[in-house]
Each structure stands twice: as structure tokens, then as C-alpha cells.
Amino acid sequence: MTADSGGYGILTEESFERSRRRIGIPLRTNPAHITEVNADATRHFAYGYGDDNPLYCDPGYGKKTRWGGLIAPPNFTYCMGENAAPALTPEQTRALKGDPFAGLGSYQAAMEFEYYRPLVAGDRCRALRAQVGVQDKESRFGGRTAHVTHDFLYANGHGQIVTIQRGTWINAERHTTKARSEGESGTKQPVSLEPYADEDLAEIDAAYDAETRRGPQVRYFEDVEVGQEIQPRVKGPLVVTDLIVWHIGWGMQLTPPGAFGIARKVRKKAPGLYPPNARRVPDTVQRLHWDPERARELGIPMSYDYGAMRETWLTHALTDWMGDDGWLFNLRCQHRKFNYIGDTTWIRGTVVDKVSVDGRNEVHLEVSCWNQRGEQTTPGSAVVLLPTRDRAVELPAPPADSLEGLLALEIARFA
User: How far is the C-alpha of 186 from the C-alpha of 220, rounded, in Å?
Assistant: First the structure.
């Protein structure tokens, strides 16, 4: 079979053309895990990434802050969003039929968030999701790859824009991905999965015990200096239980929803989402995150986390640093290495600039995740808005007033 003749698991010109035809077509989404913001839901979500900030967990605490009540963590839109997509035309339905990159490995590569207002207790949320671009790129990880960018646009029940989320996934042929995870001799590149020494675990526990939260103590723009480091955070060693707790709060938005008979209904429509396990029992494609045997079948030495987990870890470090009166405006990150079960992640950040733009007092930071092997797994950047001693933070204005207007801007922006 030639590279352009088509076929399952093969990256072809036809694949790219089919993908391009999808740009701008709003996608139907799974039912939202959470339909209305409440203290139980936000607490479960925050606990899922190790954050017990009372701003997200205690309605009584929130009443004493500038927000006047409980607000949701910035990344909470991951588990919200009632479908705002209009009915599809017959042409759009044909364009969305099948997966242009079926059989390829798909890996989250980058994510960007812009936050415009918080979700508060009682809020509902509408979501519009669509592909906004696809690029043909060479990658050191997977040879020729398809970089597909999707937008996730969120508004609250009053129609006010809440969040813009841009995500890019790399699609690569699995045999190429596997080959590049191996050395020239054909053996896998070594990944240390050795047991932790007592002193290593003691260091991790000491870091947990030392963590502080700015909370109600205002961090003023005037007091921040370039070169200042935020307090580091540690997450790990990662265990499967962490993934379970994460899913309890986050839901199963990227996996087939439901179990047993509900899963069977999904499997009848999309059997490819349930490849058989070692006992020939159909099981979700997402199991490579907790099933090391499945990960090894795909050329990956061990199960690994979700990129979205590291995004919440970065958010946790930033929101604890900025305090209740600050506002996380922008977060960008790239997921460059796997974070395996058993790995420990250290989150670090440094102030690299502070500027006043359009009335906003912006603090620019470089943020990153590092594993216990000294490897940077997720580099990123963030913009935090801080109050001055004579002026509170004003929430930024979104670039459009509606989800549909945002989508049109995003397609033009990507092009």
C-alpha cells in the first residue's frame, strides 16, 4: 500500500483533505458531566487535582471575597458545557462521517486557555466545539504527522463568554511512533521505573507539607518583581488511584460515557472505541492511561497521565500564588514528554515581565512541569492580572459577544 492509497492507520493526502472539510463545523458533544455549578461539583473537581482552595470548595468562604460567593476553578469547563451546536446540514453530516485519521495514534500536544469571567454557583454553561485547523508537519516524535486544532468555546447561561480553549492533537502512524520510541538497535529507550528511596519520598512529603496559599492576602502588582519565583508544587508519585479520583471530578468527557449496557450502546455505534483486551473483552481506548499492557502494545513503555491533569496542576500553582483577588487570564502549555504512572512532577514558575495593557496590570510568567529524572515534560507560559493598591482587577473583555462570533474569529485567526 502506498502512502496516498488510503487505509486504516495510514496518514494520507486524502486524510488531510477530509480533515480540512471539517473546519468550522460545530460538533455534537457528549452530555455534560456537570450541568450546574455547585459546591459539591467544584470541590470534587478541585480535589481531583489536589486543590482544597476554599474559594472553590466552601460557599461561606467565597461570600467574604470580591466574588461574593463560590466560584469554579478555571479549568472547570472541562466537565461542563451543554451542547450549543446547531443542527447539521446533510453536507456537514457527510463531512463528519468517519474519522479522517482512524487507526492513528492521537496525542494531546498543546493547550491554550483564555479566561474572561468565572463560573459561579448556579451557573449553567453552553459549549461550542469545532475544528479550526489542520497542519501537515514533520515531528521528531512521529515522522509525518497531522496537527489538528480544536476550539472549545464556553458561555454561561446568560450568554456571557467564559472561556476560550484551543487544543492541538498530533496524529501519527502507530508503527512510526513506536519506532521513534526505540533506539537504533530496536530496543526501547530506557525509562527509569525504579522504586523510590525513602529519602526521595521524604522530600516529596516535605514539599507537600510546605505548600502555602496566598488566599485573602492580596498580592499587589506593585510588589511583584521580574525574576521572582512562585512557590513550587509537587504532584506525585502518580498512581492509578490519582486517575480514578481525577475522573470522579472531571467525568469521562474524552472517553465513552457510561458502563455496561450504556457502553454497549456506544460500542454498537463506534466499535473502534473499544479494542479488545488480552481476554478478548472490548474495553475503552482510554485504558492505556491505566493499563500498562495496552500502553506497551502501542509502543509506550508505561501508562501515563492526561495532558489536562498537568494543565490543572499548572493552574493550581498559579491560583495559589496570585491569591483570591488575582485573575488567571491566559495559560499556554505544550505536552512534550509522557508523564508515566509512578513519575513525580514538580511545577515551577518565574515572573519574566510585568506590563500595563489596556488598563490591565499583567504579570507574565514562564511555567513548567519537570519529572524526577530532571526532564521538562510540559513547558508553558501564563498571564496573571493583579490588583494595584488603588484599583481592583477588572475582568478582560472577550473578543466577541457570542459563541458563533467567537468561532468565526477563531477560524480566521488560525488561517
Answer: 55
CB atoms within 10 A of CB 184: 6
C-alpha 305/C-alpha 288 separation (Å) is 9
Domain range annotation of the chain? 13-254+306-414
Q: What one-character DSSP code corresponds to residue 388?
A: B
Cell 529507550 found at:
189
What are the beta bridge partners of residue 182?
188
The residue assigned the cell 478478548 is 280
Amino acid of residue 82: E
Cell match 526532564: residue? 375
Nearest to 330 by CA among 412, 377, 398: 398
* Count of other CB atoms within 10 angstroms of residue 38: 15
**pLDDT (tens digit per residue) in 147-156:** 999 999 999 9
Once rounded to an integer, what is the mean pLDDT over residues 376-387? 98
Q: How far apart are CA 17 and CA 361, in angstroms?
A: 43
% of the chain surpassing 70 pLDDT: 92
Instruction: Read off the C-alpha cell for 319.
Output: 491560583
Grid coordinates representing 15 are: 486524510
Task: Find residue 382's DSSP bridge partners.
Answer: 331, 365
* C-alpha–C-alpha distance, residues 101 and 76, integer Å: 29
Nearest-angstrom CA–CA distance, 300 and 322: 37
- Say if domain 13-254+306-414 classifies as CATH 3.20.20.370: no
Q: What residues contact 30, with CB distance under 8 A and at least 6 apart? A: 252, 253, 257
* Three cell numbers, residue 111: 493547550
Give CA angle at 399 (396, 405), nearest 5°: 140
Instruction: Dig out the grid coordinates for 23 from the structure.
Output: 473546519
Find the distance separating the first CA and the last CA of the chain, reported in whole Å. Answer: 32
C-alpha span between 403 and 104 (Å, rounded): 31
Reduced to 3 states (helix: H, G, I; strand: E, B; else coil), residue 58 is coil
232 within 8 A of 316, measured Cβ to Cβ? no
Angle at 82 between CA 77 and CA 87, to 5 degrees: 135
Phi, then psi, of 55 in degrees rounded to 5 = -60, -30
What pTM did the predictor assign? Answer: 0.90
